UniProtKB/TrEMBL annotation:
Pfam families membership: SNF (PF00209)
Keywords: Membrane, Symport, Transmembrane, Transmembrane helix, Transport
Protein name stated in the entry: Transporter
InterPro entries with a match to the protein in the record: Na/ntran_symport, SNS_sf, YocR/YhdH-like
Species: Chromohalobacter beijerinckii
CDD domains: SLC6sbd_Tyt1-Like
Primary localization class, coarse: membrane
Length: 455
């Protein structure tokens, strides 16, 4: 069957590309996950380990995905198909593209539900729901949200409509426009919240907690968590960065752009910590509260401070913006594949991809309530008690993403020619040698450690 050809779009500028890549990287992982992981893993020592991991593992992997995308100039599956044919390598490497698109699809299906939680909390902040709540009341508020399939469905649907509405515009009208609007807005909101945190009387305590390493608190699990988060925060192994790289022109320096993205992603995560921990300490809350830090602990603080409704509103708008920019990028690989491999237009491809993702998200919605006791693989001890949401999270974060990331760096590091890599990256001899060591040895070993430990 022959399909109509689609001209492959390109980013209008390096800045547009960098902003879109940062938007993809900056998500719930930065604003929601990084602060609570830091709290659980001992503060500054975890941050230091994380910084080492993101530069030794995350950076070379990011460059590898962009490099493959730019070489192929197509969706991740077709890109790997073309490159393997040209290099006369096994067609099995095409599975990198397949697994990447599949991973992004599965992740967005439940990521959209969590994005919907943030939308629900914006509405709660607007009507001052948090005011005067105690610890039990805040927990009940969150529990009631999860227990209502109708409410979760409403917010999940709204979040997916927001995501489809951007991606349908294509590279220039959708991805770029969203990145140029949402990323500066996110930065302004974050700075405002850090400014507020500086007035709480616990800013110095929060900063010390974040930046003063206490190596006695470093554990094996903490190191593995830092390594895993460095890998996942940059949207690696999901086909996203390969898809974004396919829109990249030859004159963009991949190494320099990747360094900017890694630094900006890290700065935003640290700013989120500076915004959150002073509020936590000023209100006598637990920094190690885990995943509930954002949706249960912080509303308690917002409900008992002067002007808390406003700062609660700002915070959850920030959280939605972060989730939205990542959701846009998660939908893009599947849309790009459908658009290039079917007769559908950009609009049609986006609607089909968006509806398919929304439909799978219904399983996550129901896993928090009606299907809460349904464990699809409960006959196996390993998966006993795992809901559909738990399984989707496990399969993607523990299996698909590490394996896809590992295959990517192995292919680039060991099965592509040195000269071609050198011409694509346009780096100095020393920088290129360092990158090659990282992509051939350091990054693969890091991913294997995370993968084996997670199993």
């Amino acid at each position: 069957m022959s399909y109509k050809s689609h001209s492959h779009a390109q980013w209008s500028s390096r800045m547009a590309f960098v902003l879109a890549a940062v938007g993809s990287s900056v998500g719930l992982g930065n604003i929601w996950k990084f602060p609570y992981m830091t709290g659980e893993s001992g503060g500054g020592a975890f941050v230091l380990v994380y910084l080492i991991c993101i530069f030794l593992v995350g950076l070379p992997m990011l460059m590898s995905e962009w490099l493959l995308g730019r070489l192929g100039q197509k969706n991740p599956i077709s890109t790997m198909g073309d490159i393997t044919r040209r290099l006369k390598r096994s067609r099995a490497w095409v599975l990198i593209g397949v697994a990447g698109i599949l991973g992004a699809y599965l992740i967005l299906s439940f990521y959209s539900v969590i994005g919907g939680w943030a939308l629900a909390y914006i509405q709660m902040a607007v009507v001052d729901t948090f005011s005067g709540l105690d610890n039990d009341s805040v927990g009940t508020l969150f529990g009631n949200l999860l227990a209502s399939p109708v409410e979760l469905l409403l917010w999940h649907s709204l979040f997916m409509i927001m995501t489809i509405g951007v991606v349908v515009g294509g590279v220039a009208g959708g991805l770029e426009r969203a990145a140029k609007t949402l990323m500066p807005a996110l930065a302004v909101l974050l700075v405002l919240l850090v400014g507020y945190a500086a007035t709480t009387g616990a800013f110095a305590e929060g900063a010390a907690y974040l930046f003063t390493p206490d190596f006695s608190k470093i554990t094996r699990d903490g190191i593995l968590a830092a390594l895993g988060h460095a890998f996942f925060t940059l949207s690696l192994g999901m086909g996203i960065m390969m898809a974004y790289g396919s829109y990249l022109s030859d004159d963009v320096n991949i190494g320099r752009s990747a360094l900017i993205v890694v630094v900006m992603d890290t700065v935003i995560a640290l700013l989120a910590g500076l915004a959150i921990f002073p509020i936590v300490f000023a209100n006598g809350l637990d920094a190690a509260a885990g995943p509930g830090l954002i949706f249960q602990t912080l509303p308690l603080a917002f409900g008992n401070m002067a002007g808390g409704w406003l700062f609660g509103l700002l915070f959850f708008v920030l959280l939605v913006f972060a989730a939205w920019t990542s959701a846009i990028s998660l939908l893009e690989p599947l849309v790009e594949w459908i658009e290039e491999r079917s007769p559908l237009s950009r609009v049609g491809s986006t609607i089909v991809a968006g509806l398919a993702t929304w439909a799978l998200g219904l399983a996550t919605v129901l896993s928090f309530n009606i299907w809460g006791d349904f464990a699809p693989l409960g006959m196996f001890d390993k998966f006993a008690g795992m809901t559909i949401f738990d399984l989707l999270d496990y399969v993607t974060s523990k299996l698909l993403l590490p394996l896809t990331g590992l295959a990517t760096v192995l292919f680039v590091g060991w099965f592509m020619g040195r000269d071609e890599l050198r011409s694509q990256l346009n780096m100095s001899d020393g920088a290129f040698a360092l990158w090659r060591v990282a992509v051939r040895f350091i990054a693969p070993i890091g991913v294997v450690i995370v993968f084996v430990s997670s199993l």
